[in-house]
Design brief:
Layout lengths: L7 E2 L2 E2 H5 L17 E5 L3 H12 L5 E5 L3 H12 L9 E5 L10 E4 L11 H22 L4 E4 L4 H12 L6 E3 L3 H15 L6 E2 L2 E2 L7 E2 L5 E2 L2 E2 H7 L6 H22 L4 H15 L4 E8 L12 E9 L2 E5 L6 H18 L5
Parallel strand pairs: 3-4, 3-6, 4-5, 6-7, 7-8
Antiparallel strand pairs: 1-2, 9-12, 10-11, 12-13, 14-15, 15-16
């Protein structure tokens, strides 16, 4: 499904009536790259991502995929009807993965929801089964794409997507702690009454309870915060820092309790990642990547968030951020937490 209607007069396309071709003109150049992003899953998160991508004038074509054909068509039409207010983008949708063919970036938000009383492992097994039907189809129709995984638990499912795809590690990325870090920067900015864009601060590790706040590398306007406070002999309580980190971890739960789901922040976060990748911005984002070999993590092929440079080829490298011994140990503990769950999947 690509449009709600097809306009023609006795078989003659209307554009041929309104516009007369220029004599001796050449066909469109094949060197102009047609940029395409596919979003798999049109729930609250998927549609927030799709809507934000559209407002950024990032792609020539946006493809939506979902098993619920009625909701899928409704979401497609709703976006198409906003065409007069958006940059020109072709919007297509189908339950068939052929619609994703030729994508530069495939964003997977689809995932099973946890049932009351269901174990995390059982939920993971259901998501694994879902990914076994999604990932091979994306690889089939877009063998050169970058996979961006958003479904939770994102670190384990990014590993699953990597194993199922057969892609090199630079082309499989999880949204990871990019949003956690945004929440972190907001809270620090709020405490200091500055713009969050002037705060450099990262949450790394698991996108979850074992995440690690890199307090030692926080800077505001280029000034390292903790070392500045120490040089000015200004005392600060470690408890205060831990409370801010706890707020970050609890933020999603609070939003879910209040409105039933999260959507806008993750929408902006993932669209921000898409922008860095498609436009080859080479910006640093804390995203879930294969962490083996970094900071002494060597227990297995575990994906967790580290500050990584992103561009048109996916992950270009990992930033050599200085971590304290305590932060390194916390990061290793986070890796072990993810591995424990991952090892139970049997893939």
């Amino acid at each position: 499904m690509s449009s709600s209607s097809s306009l023609s007069l006795d078989g003659l396309e209307l554009n041929q009536v309104f516009f007369k071709s220029i004599a001796n003109s050449n066909p469109p150049s094949q060197t102009n790259h047609h940029t395409k992003i596919s979003v798999i899953g049109v729930g609250n998160v998927g549609m927030a991502i799709a809507q934000t991508i559209l407002t950024q004038d990032l792609v020539d074509e946006l493809a939506l995929v979902d098993a619920n054909s009625d909701k899928l068509r409704g979401e497609m039409l709703d976006l198409q009807h906003a065409a007069a207010f958006l940059p020109r983008t072709k919007i297509v949708a189908s339950a068939d993965y052929t619609v994703t063919a030729g994508s530069d970036l495939c964003i997977v938000t689809a995932g099973a929801r946890q049932n009351p009383g269901e174990s995390r492992l059982n939920l993971l097994q259901r998501n694994l089964a879902m990914y076994k039907s999604i990932v091979p189809e994306l690889v089939k129709y877009s063998p050169e794409c970058i996979l961006l995984i958003v479904s939770n638990p994102v670190d384990v499912l990014t590993y699953v997507a990597w194993k199922l795809s057969g892609f090199p590690v630079n082309r499989v990325i999880g949204s990871g702690t990019n949003l956690d870090s945004s929440r972190f920067r907001f809270l620090i900015a709020d405490h200091l009454d500055v713009n969050a864009q002037d705060v450099q601060a990262y949450i790394v590790g698991e996108h979850g309870d074992s995440s690690v706040a890199l307090w030692s590398s926080i800077s505001v306007g280029g000034i390292p915060v903790l070392s500045f406070l120490e040089s000015q002999q200004i005392a600060f309580e470690k408890d205060t820092l831990e409370k801010i980190h706890k707020q970050v971890v609890q933020s999603a739960y609070e939003v879910i309790n209040l409105k039933g789901y999260t959507s806008w922040a993750i929408g902006y976060s993932v669209a921000n990642l898409a922008f860095s990748i498609i436009r080859d911005q080479r910006r640093i984002h804390p995203v879930s990547i294969l962490a083996k070999g970094f900071y002494g993590i060597d227990g297995g092929d575990v994906f967790l968030s580290l500050p990584a440079q992103l561009g048109r080829n996916g992950v270009l490298g990992v930033t050599n951020v200085h971590l304290t011994d305590e932060e390194i140990q916390q990061l290793r503990n986070s890796a072990e937490t993810i591995l424990e769950v991952q090892n139970q999947l049997g893939i």
